[in-house]
Structure formats: C-alpha cells, structure tokens
Amino acid sequence: MADIYAALADVTGGLSETLKECGFTAVVPDGVEKGELPAITDSGRIIIKYKGENKALKIEHFNDRITLFGASKEGEILESDYAKLSVSLLDEENCDAKGIKYIVNEFSETLVEHFGTKTVKPTKTKLPPPVSKAAAKSGSVSYDPNTLANRFTTIYTDLREEYKANCEKYGQFLAEDFFVNHGAPAVLETLRENNPQKMKRLFNLLNDIYEDGTNETQSLIVVTILGQMDNEEMLANCIDYMSDDMTSPVINVNKYLASKAGKSAKMRLENPPKYKPAKDKKKKGAMNRLGM
Fold it and tell me: Is the Cα dihedral 213, 216, 218, 224 positive or negative?
C-alpha cells in the first residue's frame, strides 16, 4: 500500500500545474500535515479531493484502479453530482515511471477537455471512447478493436503515443496498422521472455476482451496478435494462460499460417493493403481475410 500512496503522490504532483490552470485547489483533510498527500481512506478507497469555482474534482484509488471524477454545479456539490471522467490501471506492478506518466498525461488531457480555459490548450486528437467492462459484461455492447488497443496500452504504456498517432493520422483508429506494426511485435517479445507475471497480465487482458469482443476484435487477437508465433515452444508457453475458448483458434491459426497453404495469407497480414477511407460496407475481420 505504501507504493500506491507514493504513486498517488507522483500522479498528483504531475497534475499540479494542470490543476492550477484549470482552477482547482486541494481539499486538505483534518490531520493532514503540509507536504503530505491530502488523502482520506474509506473502506479501502483512497480519495483525494479538489475544489474550484462551481466545480469539484476527486481522484479515487480502489481495486487496483485510479479513477478521475468531476462535477460542475452552482451551489453545493454532492457525491451524486460526480461523473466518472477517466479510469486507468494502477497496481503495485504498474506504478513505475512509465505507468505514472501515462496516467498523468491521460488525466491532464481529460482535465483540459472538461475544465480547461483559453490559456490551456486541449489535446489535439480526440481519442475514441472505449467500451466499459460493465457494458460488455451486461451484453449490451461488445468490446471493439479500439477498446482492445486502449486497454492494451495500459500494459504496454510506451505504445500510447503510437495509439494516439494512429488515431490522428487516419481520423479514426485503424486497428490492423497499430497491431501489425506495434502491438504484435510487443506481444511476441513478451512471449519470448516468458515471464510468468507479464504473461499472466497479458493473457488476463486478452482472455477478457476475447470473451466479450466482436468478431473483428476476436480475429485481431487470434490472428494478428497471436497468430504469427511460428514457434512451437512459444505456442506451448501460452497454453496455460489462454482461456479454453481462445486456445483452439490460436493453435489452428498458427498451424495454418506456418503451412505452405498459409504462406500467402501470412504475407497479406504482414503487408496489409494501403489504407483507403472506409465506404459504407460491412467490415471483414482478419480471419475472413485469411480465407479460413
């Protein structure tokens, strides 16, 4: 827990300039000394509050997640007035410098978007919103490729800028370009390293997204990300971490792409056609393009 408090101190420190420019000051709880983290703990939740003119903010850490809440209202602001603005993973494995930098950048952009003034320049690119876990688990909507990429960059934080650049370049998120050129190579490096902690974290994400993902999202995971191992030992390393639903498709795709019949399909995956603006027609997933 001490590491989490230190990480929260780094996050709030990194946000200090943006908070000031957006008109927020910290609400210091009773008993907290100057220079200490202005936080309270309530039922396992660590809460840091800020106030401004007709607005309020709170940063909450709970269940390995750090969430930014905000409210704008004349008069007294109640707990029910707060809306969730942004959420990121923050556990003891993810509180290193890269993880902190990602959270600070994400929260800074969100603050500017919701509370910024003319003196604060908002982020140039509006990133597409991810599908929430609650919505996917309820069955009301499925995880799309953008959600896969968004959560993917909580593990591979150094790819966050590539994700943003992809959205800016194409005016939308182009999944094949991102995962072929950046996502899949990062995963292959993790598979080669075969570190149990990193493998578990990666496949917890992939299993979750695969279970409630669209066909296109499932194809990205099975074919583009995990389909080009071309190494039986590497594939065997994945078996203990993959869900039952995902294991068979991943094995079959790897066998197919390693075969003579799959060579041309593999070449198409490694060299996708140049991007053209989408027309009004149904998208095809990566597995369809393999002809499987």
Answer: negative
Q: For residues 99 and 16, which has the higher predicted lDDT (pLDDT)?
A: 16
Tokens read off for 241 = 């971490």
Show the tokens assigned to 231. 């190494």
Check: CB of residue 249 under 8 Å from CB of residue 222. yes
What is the tens place of the pLDDT at every residue in 259-291?
Answer: 877 666 655 655 555 544 454 444 444 555 555
Determine the residue type at 268: R
H/E run at residue 85 = strand 83-89
- pTM, whole model, 2 decimals? 0.53
The amino acid sitting at 179 is: F
- Residues forming beta bridges with residue 167, ordered by sequence position: none
Q: Which of 103, 89, 49 is nearest to 71 (CA)?
A: 49
**How many angstroms separate the CA atoms of 58 and 37, rounded?**
13
Distance CA 79, CA 156 (A): 34
